[in-house]
Amino acid sequence: MERTGSPKFTTNSGTKRKGDIMKLNTLKTLYINELRDLYNAENQLVKALPKMAKAASSQGLKQAFEKHLEQTESHVERLEQVFQELDEKPKGKTCHAMKGLIEEGSEILHKDGDESVIDAGIIVAAQKVEHYEIASYGSVRTFAQLLGKDRSADLLQTTLEEESETNELLNKLAEDIVNPEALVESELVGASSER
Ligand code: FE
Ligand code: FE
Question: Looking at domain 27-178, does it have CATH number 1.20.85.10?
Answer without folding.
Answer: no
